[in-house]
From TrEMBL:
Matches recorded under InterPro entries: ANTAR, CheY-like_superfamily, GAF, GAF-like_dom_sf, GAF_ANTAR, WH-like_DNA-bd_sf
Keyword vocabulary terms for this entry: Kinase, Transcription, Transcription regulation, Transferase
Keyword set includes rRNA-binding: no
Full protein name: GAF and ANTAR domain-containing protein
One term of GO molecular function: RNA binding
Keyword field contains Nucleotide-binding: no
Pfam families: ANTAR, GAF_2
Domain of life where this protein originates: Bacteria
Annotated ranges, domain ANTAR: 175-236
SUPFAM superfamilies xref list: CheY-like, GAF domain-like
Length: 242
């Protein structure tokens, strides 16, 4: 038998587990509130794996990974080290055929990693993970983002867990979109301010107006094949204001 991976308590143990009988709508509302309180997409993903362990029936571990068109996978968020190891790139390949089905279906369940045949998974079994529920979070032609929850017992995730999981991933998707937009807007404002500073420096140095200074930046960006933002940052860094 392969050596079992011993897992210490999660760093997220301060989050309350939703009690038995807690109304699903209330639980999802509480989860959505925490998801939307995050500032960045990465923060949303980290919060999502924390909440998945406490919200999805039977879940003991959770992780979010990105799978590209060539079936190369890398973990982007995890609840603990066992998931980080389970979803590491070294463990991606033909031994996980159920993952590939997520390109065509929104959810895949692994009932028992110790099953004999194509649906077993010796790697997960060696880590002490017997059940898995993989839920598609985002998908396009080239990239697939998946939330997976795991349990130490076989046949843990039933239809009820699947329904809760799909509702939860819908909330995660909305929060992730919102965080992405906020991050883009923040970056756009920073870029605007940076370009404004660089324009001002060129106006002063070359004794030209704002339009001419901006055109000069654009032409230099195109000529040097450098993003306008990066060029502006270079100009500002080379001309610190006193």
């Amino acid at each position: 038998m392969p050596k079992r991976f011993v897992v210490t308590a999660s760093e997220f143990s301060e989050l309350p587990r939703f009690p038995v009988g807690y109304e699903l709508a209330e639980a999802l509302t509480a989860a959505a509130r925490q998801l939307h309180d995050t500032d960045t997409p990465h923060g949303t993903l980290r919060t999502a794996v924390r909440l998945a362990v406490h919200l999805l029936p039977g879940a003991e571990h959770a992780g979010i990974s990105v799978l590209d068109g060539g079936d190369r996978r890398h973990a982007v968020a995890w609840s603990d080290d066992v998931v980080r190891v389970a979803e590491s790139p070294a463990r991606v390949g033909a031994e996980r055929p159920y993952w590939h089905r997520l390109w065509n279906t929104p959810v895949v369940r692994l009932d028992d990693s110790e099953s004999v045949g194509g649906e077993g998974d010796a790697e997960l079994a060696g880590l002490g993970l017997r059940s898995a529920l993989a839920l598609r979070l985002r998908a396009d032609r080239q990239r697939l983002t998946v939330l997976t929850v795991y349990a130490r017992k076989p046949r843990t995730f039933d239809e009820a867990a699947t329904r809760v999981g799909r509702l939860f991933t819908a909330h995660v998707g909305l929060a992730l979109d919102s965080a992405t937009v906020r991050e883009q807007l923040t970056e756009a404002m920073r870029t605007r301010d940076l370009i404004g500073q660089a324009t001002g420096i060129l106006m002063e140095r070359l004794n030209i107006d704002a339009a001419e200074a901006f055109d000069s930046l654009v032409r230099a960006s195109q000529r040097e094949n450098i993003k306008l933002r990066d060029l502006a940052r270079t100009v500002v860094a080379a001309n610190p204001r006193s």
